[in-house]
Amino acid sequence: MKPVLVKGSEAIALGALEAGCRCYFGYPITPQNEIPELMARELPKRGGVFLQAESELAAVNMLLGAVSTGVRAMTSSSSPGISLMAETFSYLAALELPAVIVNVSRGGPGLGGIEASQGDYFQATRGAGHGDYHFLVLSPASIQEAYELTAKAFELSEKYRQPALILTDALLGQMKEPLIPRRLRVREYPKDWALDGARGRPARVLKSLFLGPGELRARNELLKKKYRAMRREARAEVLYAEGAELAVCAFGSLSRIVKEAVEMARKKGYPVAFVRPVTLFPFPEKPFRELALRGVRFLVVELNCGQMVEDVRLSVCGRTEVESLALPPSDLPAPEDIYRRIRRCLRRR
Amino acid sequence: MLKEWAKFKGFSAKNLPKEEPFAPGHRACQGCGEVLALRLALKALGMNVIAISATGCMEIISSPFPYTSWRVPWLHVAFENAAAVASGVEAALRALKRKGRFPRNRRVDVVAFAGDGGTADIGLQALSGALERGHDFVYICLDNEAYMNTGVQRSGCTPYGAMTTTSPPGKKSIGQMTWKKNVPAIAAAHGIPYVATATPAFFLDLMNKVKKAALVEGPAYVHIYSPCPTGWGTKGEDSITLAKLAVETRIFPLYEVIEGKYYITRKITKPKPVEEYLKRQRRFRHLTEEEIRKIQARVDAEYERLLRLAECL
What are the residue boundaries of the Pyruvate:ferredoxin oxidoreductase core domain, all occurrences included (chain A) (predicted)? Predict the structure, then answer.
């Protein structure tokens, strides 16, 4: 298949179309406008619906309405817009609706900036809205992966009846890379909950208010069980684990820079491994635990003030040292910057 | 005439204020009609203001770190809440005055600026709340008819037929499929003391309206039509011509609503055909004769409605 040269944002939109997304709802915000723009061009041609909402809050509630009928739909935004959607996130999780949301994140807090940042890690993995809930969070590191993971997000969200979030950033969203738009198999799951009329059967109800004694507790227990079951979807890319003394960990677009730094270090003979969580929730604890049990130390590199490092520390449970290289947004590090830090980490021992 | 305007003689070319509350050297595009409207509005208001800006072009171009064009106090907030934040500022000033912590007779005008997206779409709820509560502030909508800062996406104020990146014309669509939302009418429906429309092509009219809005006690709303060469596909030097044409074709009529009564401030007795306005812009280039006739009919009907409003109200 012939590769096409597209931006990360466009790859996400193409992945959604490949997965059979019929409706897109959005609102303008930099740096993700290529998604609504592509959807505005492509969806009407395919008999789908593109709607520009009057706000992000309206967009995500249009999404809630659409997916409640069982149709595949999505919305996308960037950090401040995602914050505005937070209330509905909680409702999407409570109603267990398979919605797909894309966050092409930028720097914060507040209006922040429009450059690459990973400051939304907590917001994505801890849930931006109220109550006990989680989103399924996937984070691509290349444009090919952005295409494939978006399609996967549609499948997993239906499998678990669960909202899924793609967390990427301005760097991946705006850069161009060749994409092989290959056909993807996206499994369908029965939707015996979808609202589609009640002829000849009892009406289906989607609601999140539970006032009866013990009702809400049972509801939360059910969700908890589902989140535990989702753990089997945890994925990570682990390289050079054999004989490593230090594992450098990063996610998303930054992991590309980190990977290069790790390869530089390995060429110089330093025993360094590379770990990249692909799913941020569920967090891929297993490779971290296994490396920790072998005494491998960790260096967590992030474009924020140190967020994922907390999940790494929880995963290794005090069995090894975990260092944080926290780089708040504005400038991207060069591979050499990270390489120097790796060298320092290893020499200290 | 309202009693608050008794002492205001109006601006003329001879008595324009010297001060420029909005400094030059900003990063607006060549021929930007919006920044001109903003500069004129601030010139009319003077230095004793607190400006609240919703995010958008005017915020981005006026404050690239570490510079700023704002020589007056400026508070920049998210997209949807300029009117709500202005409400808070106005309420706080009132409380300070009541408690004697701020000189009672010192006049500080609270003014909120937002684009058409920030007003007609995402900010409408906050605007309605602020107008309904009756805060003493001015809300200025700088309408360039799409989300230009993010790369030309349609808004509720985008005119029928216009091409934007999210209303692309083609086999299934003629571009923007809905008619422009009439935000001044929505503002007037709140029964506020003053609503006006303006354009930078008639700059004295614009400045007078903004000043009158500030002098009014209670909320005032000014809707300023602001040509955008980048988003409309027009020449930078054509912005003022276009702003003039919009008025002369009756597409954007200039009027005031003073305590519910409509006054047309520039009567157009011999209107130019809308085609003259549409033809100069790339965003309308795909329109067929039939579509142009449809637009002409709508413009005529709307103007007729406005005339009747001015006659009977």
Answer: 244-322
What pLDDT is attached to residue A347?
A: 87
With a cut of 80, say whether residue A348 has pLDDT above it: no
Give the distance from residue A206's alpha carbon to the nearest chain B alpha carbon, in angstroms.
Answer: 27
Domain ranges of chain A: 4-195+208-232, 234-348
Q: Answer whether A343's CB lies under 8 Å from A247's CB.
A: no
pLDDT digits (tens, 9 = 90+) for B240-254: 999 999 999 999 999
Give the domain ranges of chain B: 19-311
Residue A127 pLDDT > 90: no
A234-348 shares the fold of A4-195+208-232: yes
Distance CA A135, CA A346 (A): 36
Q: Which of residues 28-67 of A touch B (CB under 8 A)?
A: 28-30, 33, 36-37, 40-41, 44-45, 50, 52, 54-56
Chain B: nearest CA to A116, how far in angstroms? 16
What is the ipTM score, two decimals?
0.90
* Chain A positions in Cβ-Cβ contact with residue B170 (cut-off 8 Å): 41, 44
Using the predicted structure, report yes or no on whether residue A349 has a pLDDT greater than 70.
no
CATH architecture of B19-311: 3-Layer(aba) Sandwich (3.40)
Chain B neighbors of A52, CB-CB under 8 A? 153-154, 166-167
Q: Which fold has domain A234-348?
A: Rossmann fold (3.40.50)
Is B60 in CB contact (< 8 Å) with chain A?
no
Please indicate if any CB of chain A lies within 8 Å of the CB of B55.
Answer: yes
Does B34 have pLDDT greater than 90?
yes
pTM of the model as a whole: 0.94
Q: How many CB pairs below 8 Å do chains A and B form together? A: 55
Contact (Cβ atoms closer than 8 angstroms) between residue A66 and residue A73: yes
CATH of domain A4-195+208-232: 3.40.50.970
| Residue in B120, B124, B168 closest to A40 by CB | B168
Return d(Cα A11, Cα A342) in angstroms, integer: 33
**CA Rg, chain B, in Å?**
19
